[in-house]
Specification:
Layout (H helix, E strand, L loop, with lengths): L1 E5 L7 E4 L1 E2 L6 E11 L1 H8 L8 E2 L4 E8 L11 E4 L9 H4 L7 H10 L9 E3 L2 E5 L9 E5 L3 E3 L6 H4 L5 H12 L7 E5 L3 H13 L3 E6 L2 H9 L4 E4 L4 H8 L4 E6 L4 H9 L1 E9 L13 H6 L3 E4 L7 H13 L9 E6 L3 H9 L5 E5 L1
Parallel strand pairs: 5-9, 12-13, 12-15, 13-14, 15-16, 16-17, 18-19
Antiparallel strand pairs: 1-2, 1-5, 3-8, 4-6, 4-10, 4-19, 6-7, 7-11, 8-9
Length: 364
C-alpha cells in the first residue's frame, strides 16, 4: 500500500510504498476513507516531540473494517469505524475506573513505543520496521489497529467528515463536556480557533454557555467561530487579556487554551473569573514551561485543568458525537478547509504550519 513516512530529523515526510501485515489477535484492519491533518502530526515533523522513526504519520481518521484478528467479536468486515488514538486496554486501573483516555498501556507502550499492544509493529518497508504513530498511522491507505481503537459508528454517517471526530472534535467537545463539565449559563473563552478550538466553541454552545468569546490571530477563523456559536470574537496576541477584561471585567468561568503555547496558557489563567478554570487542551512542545502566581490562584479559588483527548470514553462519546452531527446539532463540514490526495500530506502539513488551514482531509 501507499503511506506517508517520516524518517526523522530534517527529512521531509514522503509518500512511499509500505507493507502492512495482517491483523493479529485483538486487532482489526481498516481501509481509510479520510484522515485529518492535525498539529500533533506537525509537532512530530518539526521535532517538537520525540517519537520512534521511521514512522507512518496520522492519528485521525475513519474508514471501513476489512479484516479482523482472532478474538475480535464486536467488529466485522464492513463496519464503519472512527479511529481513536487512545486505544484502551480495558484492564489497567484507569480503564477499570471508567477513564479509558488515561489508559496506562496507551500512555506507556503504544504511544511512546510506536507499536501496538503486543509491543510489535505491523508496518514495514523493504524489510525495514516502521513505527505506528499513536497506534493509528492513518496517513495510509489501510491501517491495523487494536480493536478498542476502532469505534463502530452508524453506517449512514458519511465517513469523510466524521473522521474529524477521532481527534479534533472529540478533544474539543470533550474538554468542555468531560474535563471541565461546563454548566449552562457559564461564560467561556477559547484561545485558538483551529479544528480543536472550534470544537471547544461548539461544545460550549451545546453546554448552554451564555457568552462564548473566541480569540485568534486570524480574522477568518474568528468568523468561523461566530458561525459555530461564539457570541464574541477578539484578536489574539499581545493585549488579548486586556481585551477580554474590557468585554468581561470579571473574567470568564472557563478559558480553553486550544493552542498550548506558554503565552496562551498564561493568558488563559489570567482571563479567569473568581472560581474559574483554565483548561489546557492544545499540546505544547516537550519541555515547555508556563508560569502563574499561586497566591492569586489560591485566593481566587481557581483551577488549572489538563485535558488529554477531551477526557473521552471513546466507545461512548464518539458514536454520540456522530449522532449529534447527523441530527444537525454539531457542525463538521465547516471545520474542513480542504480535501487533498494522500500524496499531498507534506504540503498539507506546510499549509497547517503557515496558518492557512483549519482541518484538511487526506483522501487515499
Amino acid at each position: 500500500m501507499k503511506a506517508i513516512v517520516y524518517r526523522g530529523g530534517d527529512a521531509r515526510a514522503a509518500f512511499v510504498d509500505v507493507d502492512l501485515a495482517p491483523p493479529g489477535p485483538g486487532e482489526v484492519e481498516v481501509a481509510i476513507a479520510a484522515a485529518g491533518v492535525c498539529h500533533s502530526d506537525l509537532h512530530v515533523v518539526r521535532g517538537d516531540w520525540e517519537v520512534p522513526t521511521p514512522v507512518v504519520l496520522g492519528h485521525e481518521g475513519a474508514g471501513e473494517v476489512v479484516a479482523v484478528g482472532a478474538g475480535v467479536e464486536a467488529l466485522v468486515p464492513g463496519d464503519h469505524v472512527v479511529l481513536s488514538w487512545v486505544p484502551s486496554c480495558g484492564e489497567c486501573r484507569p480503564c477499570r475506573a471508567g477513564r479509558p483516555a488515561q489508559c496506562v498501556v496507551a500512555a506507556t507502550v503504544t504511544a511512546p513505543g510506536g507499536v501496538l499492544f503486543d509491543g510489535t509493529s505491523r508496518l514495514s518497508a523493504g524489510g525495514e520496521r516502521l513505527y505506528h504513530y499513536l497506534a493509528v498511522s492513518s496517513f495510509a491507505e489501510r491501517v491495523v489497529v487494536p480493536a478498542s481503537g476502532a469505534i463502530k459508528v452508524r453506517d449512514d454517517a458519511p465517513l469523510e467528515p466524521i473522521a474529524l471526530i477521532g481527534c479534533a472534535v472529540a478533544t474539543g467537545v470533550g474538554a468542555v463536556r468531560n474535563t471541565a463539565a461546563v454548566e449552562a449559563g457559564a461564560t467561556v473563552a477559547v484561545i485558538g480557533c483551529g479544528g480543536v478550538g472550534l470544537s471547544c466553541v461548539q461544545g460550549a454552545r451545546l453546554a448552554g454557555a451564555t457568552q462564548i468569546v473566541a480569540i485568534d490571530l486570524v480574522p477568518a477563523k474568528l468568523e468561523s467561530a461566530r458561525r459555530l456559536g461564539a457570541t464574541d470574537a477578539l484578536a489574539g496576541g499581545a493585549g488579548a487579556v486586556e481585551r477580554l477584561r474590557e468585554l468581561l471585567p470579571e473574567g470568564v468561568d472557563y478559558c480553553f487554551d486550544a493552542i498550548g503555547h506558554t503565552t496562551t496558557t498564561e493568558e488563559a489563567i489570567e482571563m479567569l473569573a473568581l472560581g474559574g478554570a483554565a483548561v489546557i487542551v492544545g499540546l505544547p512542545p516537550t519541555g515547555s514551561r508556563a508560569s502563574f502566581e499561586p497566591l492569586v490562584l489560591a485566593e481566587a479559588d481557581q483551577r488549572i485543568l489538563g485535558s488529554n483527548y477531551g477526557s473521552v470514553d471513546a466507545r461512548r462519546d464518539i458514536p454520540a458525537l456522530v449522532d449529534l452531527y447527523m441530527d444537525g446539532e454539531l457542525e463538521l463540514d465547516a471545520l474542513i478547509s480542504g480535501r487533498r490526495p494522500l500524496a499531498e500530506a507534506p504540503e498539507a502539513l506546510e499549509d497547517l504550519a503557515a496558518g492557512k488551514a483549519l482541518r484538511q482531509l487526506l483522501i487515499p
